[in-house]
Specification:
With about 475 residues, this protein is an alpha/beta fold. About 35% of the residues lie in helices and about 25% in strands. Strands 1, 2, 3, 4, 5, 6, 7, 8, 9, 10 and 11 form an eleven-stranded mixed sheet that branches. A three-stranded mixed sheet has the order 13-12-14, with helices on one face. β5, α6 and β6 form a beta-alpha-beta unit. α2 runs antiparallel to α13, α3 runs antiparallel to α4 and α3 packs across α8. The two termini are about 25 Å apart. About 55% of the residues are buried. The structure holds zinc ion (2 copies). One zinc ion binds next to loops.
Length: about 475
């Protein structure tokens, strides 16, 4: 809270030329934001950006040659969109490579299974692993199994993710993916198979990152498509032992240094204070990462570019970040936060927002800011209201890559998107450009442009986030 009180006092003396209330914004600022909103709704650059990224680069698994091509693409795109400062910051992480994945039921009814290795998984040692499967309805049920009870067996976790507009079915389900291998190995299992963490009825398996612990063996981990998981449940329901063959070739091979790619519209009065937008540049390897997260990159680049085309830049800098390697552990967001901390720039972080929830329309604005800055959020919400966006005082969370800097106290905003269909495509070969509605992207660009502009223009300081959400 550096400015709000003094500004309020000033404005009482000098109204109406200055911002006339606790929002730190005047009528001209609101009119400019409305113009940005209407410009975006009339047709933004976002779809062309996503089309370019997903066509010219394609899938962008972190640490592969496609990662480097994506970084070069992002730098060139920021420059062509008119950002006045474009630069890279290093992000280092282990490289995981998927080579081969196959599975089948061997008995009692031989048939192929559609699976995908989970990100970070080890392979099966160059040959198929063959073992009976034991089903657990949830990760907790697996945790409750007796020690050693899975020796020589494959644990099969069959929990099903539920569909919600806000994606809240993901959290309760995803533990099976993240921690299934560790818990299965504790019980002696030789591998873990999970039902995909996704809502699709199609025969695509959903990948995603998993992790190991140092005190248990590293066992292969893979996800079955929803229909294949159903098939295994039915087979097991007949009371016979079901034996499965799993053949995975995957490996972790050293470290790689990629980059967060950053484009800025330099602020006219307070260039050192930054409002950040962003999405993550990396994707999984099977689709083209259109909704996860080509959309977020396209939306926030387009929104920043719109602000950059104004006759004068806003007071603060608008910084758009294409984060490196979100998928395998938020490496880009963590590196960004560490770099700001090392440079003593945490206090310079004003509002931060990330678009990483697909390409569905924005329906809510939420924020974590100093309570004294809440009137600014309400005012931003008023400009967003014609887009069908409501302002919600409670709840919400920063995007995944914003989480690490929020944990250091930086304030955040969330433009919540309709994610009803997001987990149909998320982390599958079916995450491709055709799933994106260009008009929906324009609505999101409108929302991000309004947010970025008003947050960068207001005389109010967003202070510190009231509490660091667990993320
Ligand atoms: Zn994502
Ligand atoms: Zn993802």
């Amino acid at each position: 809270m550096r400015h709000a009180v003094s500004l309020l006092a000033l404005s009482l003396l000098a109204a109406p030329a200055l911002a006339n209330d606790a929002t730190g914004l005047d009528a001209g600022d609101i009119a400019t934001a409305e113009t940005l909103r209407e410009q975006a709704m009339a047709g933004s650059a976002a779809w062309d950006i996503v089309e370019s990224l997903t066509t010219e680069v394609g899938p962008r698994l972190a640490g592969t040659p496609a990662d480097a091509r994506a970084v070069a693409w992002a730098r060139a795109k920021f420059e062509s969109l008119g950002f006045d400062k474009v630069y890279l910051e290093p992000v280092t992480f282990p490289v995981w490579l998927r080579h081969r994945e196959q599975a089948a039921v061997l008995a009692p009814a031989p048939q192929p299974l559609v699976v995908t290795a989970l990100g970070g998984s080890v392979g099966t040692g160059g040959q198929p692993l063959q073992a009976p499967i034991v089903e657990f309805a949830t990760l907790d049920a697996l945790k409750a199994a007796p020690e050693g009870s899975l020796a020589g067996k494959i644990a099969f976790i069959s929990n099903r993710m539920e569909r919600f507009r806000d994606g809240r079915g993901y959290g309760p389900a995803v533990g099976a993916r993240s921690n299934g291998a560790v818990e299965a190995a504790r019980k002696g299992a030789v591998a873990v198979l999970i039902r995909s963490i996704g809502t699709s009825h199609d025969r695509f398996a959903h990948t995603g990152v998993m992790r190991y612990a140092d005190d248990v063996p590293r066992i292969p981990a893979a996800a079955l498509s929803n229909p294949d998981a159903d098939q295994l449940v039915r087979l097991l329901g007949r009371g016979q032992e079901v034996t499965v063959s799993l053949d995975i070739s995957a490996e972790t091979v050293g470290e790689y240094t990629s980059h967060n790619v950053i484009g800025e519209i330099t602020g006219r009065e307070l260039p050192g204070e930054v409002v950040t937008l962003g999405g993550h540049l990396d994707s999984w390897d099977q689709g083209t990462g259109a909704i996860d997260d080509g959309a977020g990159v396209g939306i926030t680049m387009a929104a920043g570019a719109l602000v950059g085309k104004l006759g004068q830049a806003p007071r603060r800098t608008v910084r758009v970040i294409a984060y490196a390697n979100e998928e395998q552990g938020l490496f880009g967001g963590k590196a960004y936060a560490e770099a700001r901390a090392a440079a003593g720039e945490i206090d310079a972080q004003q509002l931060g927002a990330e678009s990483d929830f697909g390409a569905g329309r924005v329906y809510a604005l939420r924020a974590g800011v100093d309570p004294a800055a809440w009137p600014v959020i309400v005012k931003i919400g008023e400009v967003l209201a014609p887009l069908g966006v409501v302002t919600e005082r409670e709840g919400g969370s920063p995007g995944p890559d914003v989480g690490p800097i929020v944990a250091k106290g930086a304030p955040w905003a969330q433009l919540a998107q309709d994610g009803t269909d997001y987990f149909d495509y998320h982390h599958t070969p079916n995450d491709t450009l055709d799933k994106i509605d260009p008009k929906a992207l324009d609505q999101q660009v409108a929302a991000y442009a309004v947010l970025a502009y008003l947050a960068a223009e207001t005389e109010v300081d967003f202070g510190r986030a009231p509490a660091a959400p667990a993320k």
